[in-house]
Amino acid sequence: MNQEVVQDQVEKGLMLPLMEEFYTIQGEGSHTGRAAYFIRVGGCDVGCHWCDVKESWDPEKHPPTAIDQIIENASKYSKTIVITGGEPLTWDMGPLTQGLKERQMQVHIETSGAYPLTGDWDWICLSPKKVKMPVPEIYPKAHELKVIVYNKHDFAFAKAEAEKVSSSCKLYIQPEWSVREKMIPLITDFVMQNPEWQVSLQTHKYLNIP
């Protein structure tokens, strides 16, 4: 397949720059503890300085892979599929989610919301970043708001973001891994004072799994 054809397939969402795919336990947010198959798509220009998968940023480093193959791989493992990145909404997620749902799978996304929402989702985890804010139309569609806390200023950011989502959206606050020991006491106090929020921890890292 020549480069022009590949690029056309990528633009149509029929191929995606696949970084990795793996079966594991969801470690964060509302579905913590559930078995899930993760599809990590390359490409992200949000650029969080504390990102723990910076190798996902450059889509050129990850081979364009036909979504039919991605769907076939996922169908062998789990009914719960999590699309993550990178920033998956860099690409058209419509064809991938359609194919997964045709296999009767529950399809989740973890996104910064920096790009317009494409695809058909059973669960949208919105994790907004200050460096590139979500597009306004994604807020009312989010099932879960997950704010990462790196410093004390992020608590005010979390409250401001919570005002933009629906009343049914679950609110999670999560320490950035490298500063967790310093931030967990502050997060504990925050949630006790603001009980509409819940603590999310990267439990997969405590379990030493992907």
UniProtKB/TrEMBL annotation:
<comment type="subunit">
    <text>Homodimer.</text>
</comment>
<dbReference type="InterPro" id="IPR024924">
    <property type="entry name" value="7-CO-7-deazaguanine_synth-like"/>
</dbReference>
<feature type="binding site">
    <location>
        <position position="48"/>
    </location>
    <ligand>
        <name>[4Fe-4S] cluster</name>
    </ligand>
</feature>
<feature type="binding site">
    <location>
        <position position="51"/>
    </location>
    <ligand>
        <name>[4Fe-4S] cluster</name>
    </ligand>
</feature>
<feature type="binding site">
    <location>
        <position position="44"/>
    </location>
    <ligand>
        <name>[4Fe-4S] cluster</name>
    </ligand>
</feature>
<dbReference type="InterPro" id="IPR058240">
    <property type="entry name" value="rSAM_sf"/>
</dbReference>
<comment type="function">
    <text>Catalyzes the complex heterocyclic radical-mediated conversion of 6-carboxy-5,6,7,8-tetrahydropterin (CPH4) to 7-carboxy-7-deazaguanine (CDG), a step common to the biosynthetic pathways of all 7-deazapurine-containing compounds.</text>
</comment>
<keyword id="KW-0456">Lyase</keyword>
<keyword id="KW-0411">Iron-sulfur</keyword>
<dbReference type="GO" id="GO:0000287">
    <property type="term" value="F:magnesium ion binding"/>
</dbReference>
<feature type="binding site">
    <location>
        <position position="84"/>
    </location>
    <ligand>
        <name>substrate</name>
    </ligand>
</feature>
<feature type="binding site">
    <location>
        <position position="210"/>
    </location>
    <ligand>
        <name>substrate</name>
    </ligand>
</feature>
<dbReference type="GO" id="GO:1904047">
    <property type="term" value="F:S-adenosyl-L-methionine binding"/>
</dbReference>
<feature type="binding site">
    <location>
        <position position="86"/>
    </location>
    <ligand>
        <name>S-adenosyl-L-methionine</name>
    </ligand>
</feature>
<keyword id="KW-0479">Metal-binding</keyword>
<dbReference type="GO" id="GO:0051539">
    <property type="term" value="F:4 iron, 4 sulfur cluster binding"/>
</dbReference>
<comment type="pathway">
    <text>Purine metabolism; 7-cyano-7-deazaguanine biosynthesis.</text>
</comment>
<dbReference type="InterPro" id="IPR013785">
    <property type="entry name" value="Aldolase_TIM"/>
</dbReference>
<keyword id="KW-0949">S-adenosyl-L-methionine</keyword>
<feature type="binding site">
    <location>
        <begin position="127"/>
        <end position="129"/>
    </location>
    <ligand>
        <name>S-adenosyl-L-methionine</name>
    </ligand>
</feature>
<dbReference type="GO" id="GO:0008616">
    <property type="term" value="P:tRNA queuosine(34) biosynthetic process"/>
</dbReference>
<feature type="binding site">
    <location>
        <position position="40"/>
    </location>
    <ligand>
        <name>substrate</name>
    </ligand>
</feature>
<dbReference type="Pfam" id="PF04055">
    <property type="entry name" value="Radical_SAM"/>
</dbReference>
<protein>
    <recommendedName>
        <fullName>7-carboxy-7-deazaguanine synthase</fullName>
        <ecNumber>4.3.99.3</ecNumber>
    </recommendedName>
</protein>
<keyword id="KW-0671">Queuosine biosynthesis</keyword>
<keyword id="KW-0004">4Fe-4S</keyword>
<keyword id="KW-0408">Iron</keyword>
<feature type="binding site">
    <location>
        <begin position="50"/>
        <end position="52"/>
    </location>
    <ligand>
        <name>S-adenosyl-L-methionine</name>
    </ligand>
</feature>
<keyword id="KW-0460">Magnesium</keyword>
<dbReference type="GO" id="GO:0016840">
    <property type="term" value="F:carbon-nitrogen lyase activity"/>
</dbReference>
<feature type="binding site">
    <location>
        <begin position="25"/>
        <end position="27"/>
    </location>
    <ligand>
        <name>substrate</name>
    </ligand>
</feature>
<dbReference type="InterPro" id="IPR007197">
    <property type="entry name" value="rSAM"/>
</dbReference>
<comment type="similarity">
    <text>Belongs to the radical SAM superfamily. 7-carboxy-7-deazaguanine synthase family.</text>
</comment>
